[in-house]
Amino acid sequence: ELQLEHARQAFALKDKNKSGLISGLDFSDIMVTIRSHMLTPFVEENLVSAAGGSISHQVSFSYFNAFNSLLNNMELVRKIYSTLAGTRKDVEVTKEEFAQSAIRYGQVTPLEIDILYQLSDLYNATGRLTLADIERIAPLAEGALPYNLAELQRQQSFGLGRTVWLQVAESAYRFTLGSIAGAVGATAVYPIDLVKTRMQNQRGTGSVVGELMYKNSFDCFKKVLRYEGFFGLYRGLIPQLIGVAPEKAIKLTVNDFVRDKFTRRDGSIPLLAEILAGGC
Q: pTM to 2 decimals?
């Protein structure tokens, strides 16, 4: 009631001449500004075309009230249609048939029925009403989500009930990605590991007692390049990959698995759960 009163006062504000009429553009502006939650994309796009129900596009106060009342009564409109069509969704109902059936309910006025069929004809001028026309006009039920958010929620709820095989396949996918990530990381830093290992394992050589082969890490790097070539920096890489790839993969897979178990509906994860996932 508060929203309807707000709309009535907006009409009075636009009706500067106190003629009881406003333009189609003013009508559209009021509806989009104040009652946008009641407008489907189709209705919003055709507000000016529907304004007043005539080519003059002048909207009277009675038409304005009937338009808003129709949007509020779309659930009743759907019920009236179902009494005529039964379980079928493709039945085309004439205005006369609809008006005759609406008499028993008494809440839908003839002007509202005229507006309903006028909006329906803006999409397909057949003079008949189908369930698709009603769905195109009917605003969202109170508490309902827009279709895109509802679809996202449906997919998320579907994900909560995933089959065991799907979870296994996802874990295998993550394991593979973890192996690749570990292999790339190990390959990138392997020359540093090789130099470190050579420095740790070197013994005194040469004619002078206690003489070392490498003076420092940089010297070791240069000598490996000089005497063994670029690929010498990667000597023994394969065993390293055999060990590192699954090790990294296990870490990332277990981390993701534990994080998934503690992920909230909004996608956030408590700090302690993140610490626990890293520890696992």
A: 0.48
